Amino acid sequence: MRFVPVKTVEQQAILSVHRTRSLLITERTALVNQLRGLLAEFGLIISKGIARVRREMPSLLEDAENELPDMARDIIADGYQRLCQIDKHVLAYDVRIKQIATNSESAQRIMQIEGIGPITATAITASIGNGRVFGSSRQFSAWLGLTPRQHSSGGKARLGKISKRGDVYLRTLLIHGARSALLKTALKDDKKSRWVESLKKRSHQNVAAVALAAKNARIIWSMLVNGTDYKVAV
What ranges do the domains of the chain cover? Predict the structure, then answer.
């Protein structure tokens, strides 16, 4: 069992920024779902997505002919105002995280990887430092829960789904970043992009995203341990 070393005060401070931002995101998602549910009770439907709620909510609240009771209108308007406040707080934390990434040489280097932005980069560097507590890139990937489970039967080892053990927050960030990177791999001709495109054709999009996240995790570990820059294999 591998343990992450005791974090510095600075690392703990950076992770506190991430945890607070994550809590705001969770609160925002719950609030949006509640607002959509309250409106649906009065026959006013807003499709899924925070952007749609932001776009359609003001006109629904201002429409005096949609038969929305005044009491319900006031409550929903209050919820919408809270949503706007949460958006401002999330944006402020995003700006702070970008500043942290700008001042971190390690974060800047791993942000060279496709799909790795300031949020993922600062969360990883604050969580594992230089990564040397892990003996290999596979150990780091396993700590994130990105390695497949192994099942042995009849002397044969079979690989199953990823274990999903370890740091849920980092794993989620890496997979979301991989999904973003997948949108551009078809336009590239480097070795990793060709591998991902081949995997997308053989399996599901989600499988390709997780596989790319695991590969990126191993690359990140190598870059942190060796202090190297990202090099795209041709």
Answer: 1-103, 115-234
